[in-house]
Amino acid sequence: MELRTSIIDISILQRLPQLDDSIILEIQPLAPLSMVSELPGSYYKALKMPDKKMICGLIENVLGWHIDLSDRKEIAKEIKKMRDQLVKQQKKQKNSLFKSDQKVIPYTDYSKGSTYLPLLMDYFEIENLVPIISTKVMFYDDLWKKAYRRADSADVHIGGSSNLSYEALIIHTLSNDDRKEYFKNHLGLFPLFYSTPTEREYISMDGKYELNLSIDCELYRLLKEKSITNNIGCLGSSEGWVDLKIKEL
């Protein structure tokens, strides 16, 4: 299995996770955060503190792991195959590469409940998470653009699209039946998604989150190296900008 590309180095996934380092991760919000639980429904209720999957998303974001879902699924298949083989080998005690205290972590599918499939969940563990508030915390609701896609409804899609090709302006002069036919036959002239306003809760805080992590030494090295040139990432949503600081214990 080759997990190294010319753009993103994900070769860490070839090694077994070992939580052999301890660090403090300090997360300073630079914008209001909306950390929403999985399958939120019609109202996007924000969590008061980030969960492990959100922290994993932040770590992968800082590392530059901008990998689409289809590629993540292919990578996950390879990881599962590798882990399954190692579990079998360990059970038979025929793999001389294993240390006596090294245990293979079986593959777990962490995609349940969302379209985000994290790849580094097994390479760290949150031991403690503490919010440190300087002065105030404010919760408020705002409208957020939620993206949808429908290839069978010209009226809905066009009504929620901010931009479309000038060639498609003719659709406004057509009858309802003709609009639907034109839309289906000219999908390339329209945005892939249309948007609809959705109520979402945000947290504005004057403070930070402090996390004690047990972490794989290689992941720690990658994070420390990357933070020299980029310590800004997103937490909870693409608008949730945060500053990341790493401290050794």
Question: Can you tell me about this structure?
Answer:
The chain is of the alpha+beta class. It folds into 2 domains: 11-140 and 198-248, Alpha-Beta Plaits; 150-192, no CATH class. It has helices at 52-63, 69-92, 154-160, 176-185, 217-227; strands at 21-29, 124-148, 194-215, 232-234, 241-248. A 5-stranded antiparallel β-sheet has the order 2-3-1-5-4. It starts with 20 loop residues before the first strand and ends with a strand. The mean pLDDT is 84.
Order of secondary-structure elements: EHHEHHEHEE
Query: What is the CATH fold-level name of the largest domain?
Result: Alpha-Beta Plaits
Name the CATH class of the largest domain. Alpha Beta
Q: Number of DSSP strands? A: 5
Order of strands, main sheet, comes to: 2-3-1-5-4
Question: Judging by the overall fold, what is the CATH architecture of the largest domain?
Answer: 2-Layer Sandwich
**SS summary, helix count:** 5
Low-confidence stretches are: none
Could you say which overall geometry the principal axes of the C-alpha atoms support? globular
> Quick check: average pLDDT?
84
